[in-house]
Design goal:
By secondary structure, this protein is of the alpha/beta class. It has one domain: Acetylglutamate kinase-like (Carbamate kinase, 3-Layer(aba) Sandwich). The protein is 37% helix and 19% strand. It has 8 helices and 11 strands. The strands form 2 sheets. A 9-stranded mixed sheet has the order 4-3-5-2-1-6-10-11-9, sandwiched between helices. A two-stranded antiparallel ribbon has the order 7-8.
Length: 239
Amino acid sequence: MKYKRSLLKLSGEALMGNNEFGFHYNRLKQYAEEVKQVVDMGGQVAIVIGGGNIFRGFTTSKKEEKTINRIEGDYMGMLATVINGIAFQSYLENVGICTYIQTAIRMDQIAEPFGKDRAIRHLEKGRVVIFVAGLGNPYFTTDTAAVLRAIEINADVLLKGTKVDGIYTTDPEKDKFAKKLKNISFDMVYKMGIKVMDQTAFILGNENNLPIVIFDINRKENFKKLVSGEEIGTLVYKN
């Protein structure tokens, strides 16, 4: 196994499937089964889920901005990640995986407060840990939260599951000549202005030498193949 301990980042949109919002329950089931495959292999899996299927964080509508500002909107987005974490925990436990939720905003009836040492102990015992509520502060995305949590638990890699199979030279949906990149350095990510993750997340990953792989989570067994060492998606690495 190439990556013994991984942090899987899922967007809230990934949970929607083809729906306009909310959950696509077949997707939740599929992702739970993908995680189970890795855990059954002896892999240690932590998860961060976004909240875009429920609330986008902050709005760009001038009319709505007068009512919901950036800070309030970001806190609403954090709470959306808690809802997603609870939903995914149910599916993981349904396939037989002991799962704990840790939150950056205290809500003791629902989840444990975040603690890296306790999270690592859970992982070492074969449990899955879902980190929710971002970093507990506005202005930080769940991408940045995922990178920081991966660093804190000494993960071998951050795997960002998306609907595309990696990073391309240009937008493959707009340019039929776009070429998929097998790997790319953090420096080139900055120069090319790639936005598959926010720049703060990439900078944090670069400074802490955390490899990041962008891959298609919807293709069955991709997660298992990745942690086993197969070259899937695009690897972002430190020079």
